[in-house]
Amino acid sequence: MAKLNRDSVIAEALDLLDEVGLDAVSTRQLARRLGVEQPSLYWHFHKKEDLLSAMAEAAMAPHAAAPLPAPSDDWRNWFAENTRSFRRTLLLRRDGARLHAGSMPAGKDLDRALQKYEFLVAAGLPEPDVRTAMLATSRYTVGSVLEEQANAAPGTDHEPAFDAGLALILDGLALKLRA
């Protein structure tokens, strides 16, 4: 077996998540899959919460690679597409929204969030409204994906329903811009 490293543990943990769901992910099961004793995992993650946090960060990598806004971008189109990218990324993993819920951006992710914030303020949106809109769309997206992944509304065409709710948020933000 190859030497155990942080990235391989996270990758295997995400594969396990996709197979069994968040509630069934355990360090015991992960160690078994990696062919190591459970205490070996503690070299990389002191507790399960640290592993879950690293998994959440890794699961968001596709969204973290999405383009940052350019000064010439239309704020509304960019914000809508960025939010859709966030949704698509959460949907890539079984229980992706549950895994992500409660996580906070740090490091490069925090820098990216600040660049997005600054872009929206530079577009003329009031700072308090930008903070509120970024938080509201994040919570709306996570909540929508939570419901979708739980199949809480069978028969719902989730993408158009999501876009309709997102449009309402963006319409409200546009009103603030015109005020």
From TrEMBL:
It comes from the Bacteria. SUPFAM superfamilies: Homeodomain-like (SSF46689), Tetracyclin repressor-like, C-terminal domain (SSF48498). It holds the Pfam family TetR_N. Residues 3-63 form the HTH tetR-type domain. GO terms for molecular function: DNA-binding transcription factor activity; transcription cis-regulatory region binding. Keywords: DNA-binding, Repressor, Transcription, Transcription regulation. One of its GO terms (biological process) is negative regulation of DNA-templated transcription. Residues 26-45 bind DNA. Signal peptide: none annotated. PANTHER family: HTH-TYPE TRANSCRIPTIONAL REGULATOR RUTR, TRANSCRIPTIONAL REGULATORY PROTEIN. This is TetR family transcriptional regulator. It comes from Winogradskya consettensis.
